[in-house]
Amino acid sequence: MNRHPALAVRFFFLATLMLTGLSATALRSFAQSAPGRSAAELMDAVMWNREPIGGPFALIDQMGTPRSEQDFKGKLLLVYFGFTYCPDICPTDLQAIGLAIDQLGAAGDKVQPLFITVDPERDTSAHLAGYVSLFHPRLIGLTGDAAAIRKAADAYKVYYAKVANEAGTDYTVDHSAFVYLMGADGQYLGFLPPGTTPERIAEAIRQRGLLKP
Ligand code: NI
């Protein structure tokens, strides 16, 4: 993963923390939504680069405009899956993405951040419009029907599952939260774990020489 032992330890700590959090609700999720692949299996696929990441999608942005991966050719993409009612990790990571792009200065114009909802039921285009603007003026929010969201999430090996509260009156969505870096031709370049700082995101982009003309 990387040569710096302290960073490696921190990475594994974060990954383990995420897996633990997800498995705590795994039994409840199982009963409530069509089970996709398990959180552990998908996390393994991403962490150890076992399966391809990314691919075509057909979704709708916060203005109601249909969008596909073809619309973003030539841009470096930061792709993040989550949902607007997420209390903690989604807003933190989206804020980090927005700040990282600003830190890149003019070069940041070549970076396109995408937020793909895993809660299309509540995250309509109109709802996304009010949300994405909180984090960055160029952040694009994407939604779609359940099948289109499932297809996009599967392509990125994203785990998500609806989990109802005890009373069955409300629900949350368990989900994996990686920041995916995709190149100008749509190729997968790597991921950053949840909780990555803006500085580290900006550095990861610069270090790879991704913004050279
Ligand atoms: Ni979240």
Tell me what the structure shows.
The structure is a single chain. This protein is α+β, with helices and mostly antiparallel strands and 213 residues long. It has one domain: 3-Layer(aba) Sandwich (Glutaredoxin), CATH 3.40.30. 37% of the residues lie in helices and 21% in strands. The protein has 7 helices and 9 strands, in the order αααβββαβαβαββββα. The chain has a 7-stranded mixed sheet. A two-stranded antiparallel sheet has the order 6-7. The N terminus is likely disordered. The site of nickel (II) ion has 6 residues, from α4.
Keywords:
213 residues, alpha+beta, 9 strands, Glutaredoxin, seven-stranded mixed β-sheet, two-stranded antiparallel sheet, 37% helix, binds nickel (II) ion
| Rg from Cα | 16 Å
Give the mean pLDDT. Answer: 85
Identify the bound ligands: nickel (II) ion
Number of domains: 1
Please give the largest β-sheet: 7 strands, mixed
- Please state how the strands of the largest beta sheet are arranged side by side: 2-1-5-4-3-8-9
- Gap between N and C termini: 27 Å
> Which homologous superfamily in CATH is the superfamily?
Glutaredoxin
User: Approximately how much beta-strand content do the residues carry?
Assistant: 15-25%
Low-confidence stretches: 1-17, 19-34
Tally of contiguous helical segments: 7
